[in-house]
Give the backbone structure.
Amino acid sequence: MNALSAGQKAPDFNLPRDTIKTDGAEHLSLATFAGQKLVLYFYPKDDTSGCTKEAIEFNGLKQDFAAADTHIVGISADSVASHNKFKTKYDLDFALIADEQHEMLNAYGVWVEKSMYGRKYMGIERTTVLINRDGTVAQVWSKVKVPGHAAEVLAAAQKL
């Protein structure tokens, strides 16, 4: 699928989530957040430098997102066990979804061919999607640069 754009209906998903500090839900879906604003941030790998910085930035603004009636969910291809360790290590207070089969990653257009040192491989393009209360995409940030990104997403969420 091509990249999403504002105004499109957000693709549905139903995937396993971390099991740390949850309300008992083992899976999360788009319907879980019906009528609420949602930030989906796609990141390459648990406990790596940029991904850790991004998670910590979002976590630091969790109360501000909550005040803007906006939920935060991180998504990577890592396992639930990996998410649990990552979330515990950095005391993250939002859900992490495990998409080991790349279903959601493909649906949102973030599972792409990448290149490092001339070697091509498939991976996640760091992307954030802000979803309106009606389930449509409000804004998409592609090829995200981490510093200050969470604050930029918060400002957009506060305007919705």
Q: What stands out?
A: The chain has a mean pLDDT of 92. The CA atoms of residues 29 and 124 lie 20 Å apart. The chain has one domain: 14-159.
